[in-house]
Fold this protein.
Amino acid sequence: MLKKMTITIIFIFMFVHRTAPNIKEFVILKAETINPYESIWEAVCEVESKNDPTAYNEKENAVGIAQIRPIRIRDYNERTGKNYSLDEMYDPVKSKEVFMYFAQKLQNPSRIIRKWNGSGPMTLIYMEKVLIEMNRK
């Protein structure tokens, strides 16, 4: 029995093509974009509005999922040549565009978080809230 199996295996190896196929190309089925600031964006949205794109803060006149204020829109429009209105910041896609623009300019996670909130010592408290939220996920 063992002798027959051995002969069969030898026979298979003699007649089976044992080289790799001659393929000179490959296909990438899906390329995914890597966004290093995505986790910051998600945490900021949770802290700012509990992920509510319809949120409005009357005291600060801040709107949308990321609670964007008029001064941020003016700055963004001046830098980019766009002409977004504050009302357009209820659109999460446009809000994210604005956020990512500033995030890419700053590049440092702690600076991104603190500058999104403003300036001064309260930004440290804000940053801690955002970092806690980032660690939950």
Q: What stands out?
A: The CA atoms of residues 45 and 51 lie 5 Å apart. Residues 39-136 form a domain with the Lysozyme fold (CATH 1.10.530.10). The mean pLDDT is 86.
